[in-house]
Specification:
Length: about 290
Amino acid sequence: IEDVVLYDLSMSFIGLGETGEVVLGARNDSRVDFVAPLRHDTNVTFQRKLELGSPNALPIQNAVQGTKGSGISIDYRGEEIIAVWRYLPSLKWGMVVKIDTNEVFAPLYKLKILTGLFVTLMLAGIIFALMLITPAGSAPIAQLIHNIKEITKGNLDISHENADRVDEIGNLFKVFDQMVRKLKKDQKEYLIRSEKYQLENRLKVGQTDLYKVMRGEQDLETLSQKVMDYLAEFMKVQVGEIYLLESQFLIRVAGYALKAEKSRPYKLKIGEGLIGQVALEKKSLLFNQLPDGH
């Protein structure tokens, strides 16, 4: 009965707007099988499959692996979404309820713009009445109308020379400037938040892919080198090393693009050199500028 109810739920979009949906998936070895139709692709039941570790559809990947959570992520279409996910142990399914961030945030952003434009246009109406008495005010009003049209197109990089005036038109442009600065601030905060979530999603993908690299029975040398190669590619590093702690010594077990230097030690004491110091302090050290030869 439960799976029938969930199946029907996945086909109901009440309260989910134009883009929201319920996604159901089951883990099948190293992939996810979608077990119910998708709103944006209704003919994929048990046909659409997703490899664990793929950059898209992270919520359903997390859900089928037994975790629950919420946040901004990327769905199976590659679209940014707000999602809540959980694991259903009785069915061994994962469930995701999601909606596109564009749909969620657009009304708020549009409301701010429309509110500001409404106030500006109302003031413009007052100034327009004054313009009939003072024809010299027609040029600034024409510029203001032009700027308003630019904002409705999404262009916030507009400028004018009338804010320094000490009359009603100058006051109107000051209010307009305040609105534009507020919109720019909101836009910047949204971009920062979006970049943050994209970075978090990339790290989640990296963790999943690293787990796949480490799976299976492998000897220490092979495993270490595979991990080193993956990290070098994922982090876009030019040189890398992995050391293993044995007793009070650090033994180099893998390297990436290392120079063949006979004098280079493969074994270090705790506290010896930068690597030994990192092991001693148990925290990261970051150097942006290094001398030649490093």
